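Researcher: Let's run the pair from yesterday's discussion. Sequence first, then tokens, for each.
Model: Starting with the first of the pair.
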Amino acid sequence: MANARELALQTLTDILINGAYSNHALNEQIEKSDLTIQDKNFMTELVYGTLQHQQLLNFYATPFFNGKVKGWIRILIQMTLYQILYLDSVPEHAAISEAVNIAKKRGGQFNGKLVNAILREMMRNPLSNLQEIEDDAERLATKTSHPLWLIKLWIKQFGMEKTEQMANANNERVNVTIRVNGVKGTKEELKQKLEEEGIQCRDGFLSPDALVITKGNVIKTKAFEQGWFYVQDESSMLVSRALKPKHHTKVLDTCSAPGGKTTHVAEMMRQTGMVYAHDIYPHKIKLIEDNVKRLGLKNVVVNLQDATKLTECYPSESFDSVLVDAPCSGLGILRRHPEVKITKKPEDLDGVMAIQKEILKTVASLVKYGGTLLYSTCTVNRKENDKMVEWFLREHPEFKLDQTLVERLPEVLNEQASTGMVQLFPGDYQTDGFFIACLKREIL
């Protein structure tokens, strides 16, 4: 049976060469392995560590490749270099020896000798010096393993200091955060249940519904099976708090999958009213339905529908609240999906912004006068966030920013929330990067 390093290499190959999502590829390999808990943790560290620092590892390793090394061998050398540079618990000789064994097993004696020669050469010679990169943006991009175009974009929009903070935060380890299902019981009751199952946790910083898991696999608990909680970042939990749906009202969630905000809204309405959840992909519809069922919610209707065609399903002014958690570039969740730093291209942003505009144009008429339109993304890009809201307000003057948002979000966000918009940056409160704007439809 393959060991942790072999499985980590296969996972990284699936991600970097075959285009798999990091969380899916890692979970698939772990589920079918017979690794110990310790080895599973080590494997996870290797996968995410190598992905998070891939550009820097490549910067160090490339001078020793002479253009001959490609594919899985290049990834194996990067993964080994990560162990040597970042994992104090792994001796250098052990990391190299294991890499050579994997290369022999996977590609024969020649590849074993090639990997051994490259790694030994790297250890005998100084690695490239980051300080030799004269351009500040390029040096930061390489040091933190972010694409140069993204670093330049953030510097232009937010300045060098904030950009450096975000880039460093994206390479930090992430704890799992869960949201208590208020329909089932209180956060204190959930804490007790988790402690009985050996799970350690602490209160979240921003959301009153949040628990941060500090030890244990919370997905394997009875509490999860019984629907006591939903795995969700604190920043995402703030969306439903910002919306603050009233009991017995109608809420539309236009882009619902996997159902985190839909289920949170439904919980806050205490099984009254109705949440109409939509998504464009059939497999995601099942995901929403499964989550609704597990959490025991009765006030959710799930439908397969393109968000840009929702006016074909509902007449004008059908909903008290409309939630648009829009498709976006995902630049706020790079710490959870580090492969996005490698795969995302600047031209991708234009395509997603066109979709955002189309959804907003479509659903505007579905909001009742006096009702709420809440727009959110998991990205850090002004063109998709506050600039998108400004565009929408110019196109739809009957909508105004809701400055009472300040009454529904944590006090630490008061300055931003008083404008009706909040931008969370990676690293600010140990959350993902996230944007929320709350709009009211008024009678002109």
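Model: Moving on to the second of the pair.
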Amino acid sequence: MDRWRMRSAALSFVAGHTAFPLIAMIYDCFTFFNELDLLELRLNELDPVVDRFVLVEATLTHQGKPKPLHFAENKDRYAAFRHKIEHVVVDRYPANNGNDAWVYEKHQRNAIAQGLHNAGPGDQVMISDVDEIPHPRKVSEAAAMKGVRIFRQRMFYYYLNCLNASEAGGGAYAWNGTVMVDAGDIRDPIQRYRDFSMLMANYFHRKLTHRVYWNLRLAQERVRYGWKPVFINDGGWHFSYLGGVDRIIEKIEAFAHTEYNSANYKDRARIEAAIANGEDIFGRDFKYRFVPLDGNWPRYLVDHQERFVKHIGAVKQ
């Protein structure tokens, strides 16, 4: 019997006895678009440490275009995990006369709360996009901590082994991805925890003058939010823009960054050249290189590379 069923049984047994100590749960909550292979990787990698998965998908893209419910159409692929998945469908939307894509994105993320109706104090809630996968060992460690725990995750673009190596000496760039909070501490819309995490990324700016400025400013922001950030280093993996040029263009036409939905950014030859040369498709100061898979990747990926062949690029000798 898994911990979810154990707790459900305990709740049934002690109905009305609120002093009974319940089993603390870990909820893995994430927004989902169409990343079916990454979903397989995420579920298998985190299954040993997660009690409930809250998957949120919408009937509209962030740019307001109708889209299929990809998880609903492919749920049989994930049958082994269905008893642990809370599938939240977003099909109602706030007024958005200006057609602001960020309104749709934030609305989808806030819908995570609909999957937390059984969560209570002591339960730990992780908030991510599906392509931000926390390290299972770090999940267990972070669950014993307090505060807003921010997982610093290695970033990979285009392929599962195409590393963002933009730090000094070709070191791995770290992304503020997954956030963990105690369910009993959630008083705000879910999006605010994402905003807080993105703001706290400025602590790690590559330029010293920027870090000094932001360390002073962020001290004020911590007071304004009333939250204590705890950074979880080596906190997992952020795999983005996988699947080739067509999938990259599909994402550009769907996600909230409408400034990139233009002929220039969607030019196939330009995207192909950027990938081949280890450059950023959006012209940012990032450098990428292919590296061999080893024990620093998700265990499920390393052990089942044959399932992800199309997402693993050739390492240049």
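Researcher: Give me one sentence on the second I can quote.
Model: The first helix runs from residue 3 to 13.
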